[in-house]
Design brief:
alpha+beta, two-stranded antiparallel sheet, two-stranded antiparallel ribbon, 2 helices, about 10% helix, binds zinc ion
Length: about 90
Amino acid sequence: MTDHTKPSPPSEAKVCKIENVKFTEGALNEMANPKHKTSKSRRDKRRTHKFLKAPNLSLCPQCQEVKKPHHACLSCGTYNGREVITVQQI
Ligand SMILES: [Zn+2]
C-alpha cells in the first residue's frame, strides 16, 4: 500500500496527452481522499431514514373507493362532492 500522507518529491513534470495539462507525480497523491474508512455503524446510521413509505390514502365520500387525499377520485371523477373529470366506463 502506498503512503498517501506524504506527497512524493516532485519529479520531472509529465504532460497528459489528451488534455495537454502538465502535472507533477506528487500532485496525484494530493487529490481529495477520505481520511478514514466509514464504519459499518456510521454507514448504517446514515441510512436509517432511507426507506420507502406506504402512500397515505383516504376513502372517496361518493363511491368509497380508495383515493389520494386532495386529489380527484379516479373511479367516480369527483372532488369535494362535484364532478371534475369524466371517467370513461370500460
Ligand atoms: Zn369516488
